[in-house]
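Researcher: We're teaching a course module on how sequence relates to structure. For the next exercise, students receive a sequence and then see the predicted structure as tokens, so they can try to spot secondary structure elements on their own. Here is the exercise chain.
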Amino acid sequence: MKAIRIHAYGDINQMQLEDAPIPMCGPGDVLVRVVAAGINPIDWKLRSGVMADNLAKTFPFTLGSDAAGVVTAVGGAVSGFSPGDEVFFYAEFARGGTYAEYLAVEATQVALKPRTVSFATAAALPTPGQAAWTALIEVAQCTQGMRVLIHGGAGAVGSLAVQLAKQHGAHVTATAGTADLALVKSLGADEVIDYRTQRFEQVVKNMDVVLDTLGGVTQEASWSTLRAGGLLVATTMPPSPERAAAAGAHGTFVFTPPRGAVLAQLATLVDTGRLRMLVGQEFTLADAPLAHRLGETGKARGKMVLHVCSPDA
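Model: And here is the predicted structure for the students to work with:
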């Protein structure tokens, strides 16, 4: 099979399209022919080596964790999936490898693909969808009347978070760039703040929850927007316990494990028209280095996707 692999940490020149063995399907696995693979910021962080201390890899390894495709084989201990099923998933980083024509993944991490969207759209959903679900529904326990501030409302995680929070009855304020204000409003945000022309911390107060998808100076400025006892949930940079205490608030970092059961709930929301995934640029598998280059500039809009195989191959 063809796969994008690296043999050493470094820049995009380390990414090679090469032949690799088709993975073995273990007893608890499904073997999937990958039709489309989603691209996440952690992919270029893994490639560059900045995650090496936390997520060490053995070379060569195949990049990628999000995908949608067709089941070609199932392990002996697997029930609920059969060859020919259209599925989507986020594979744990210990295995990963979705920038490839085939991947063996634990069946518990897989769900049936939403029927109403393309493989590319389905491949864009798993990681950001599960991150938004874990942060808002499970950790923050978003409920009716809660006031929620979501950063990066047009981003992969933020756009899904806006929709999920609104569906659970929250009053949603989101930040976005000038070009994306109308889009984020259309997703259900009650208020949208243009971070290019306004400082959100000067206009937002008494939030019950802040979803910080950016870290850095955005996280620091977010503490003043929380009510006493409020919660900052971060997806990119762990908040300082000391800083949280100084603000009279709480902070927590969300690292989302892959769970097919959550994906199944997200698929239902997609198929009933209650959840929309924003797909940005689309590339061929061979052009994965170009996608990484664009992603590292911070100028990609929506989630990038690789087209890997034909669904009918």
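Model: If you want an answer key for the exercise: The first strand starts at residue 2 and ends at 6. Residues 129 and 160 are 6 Å apart (CA to CA).
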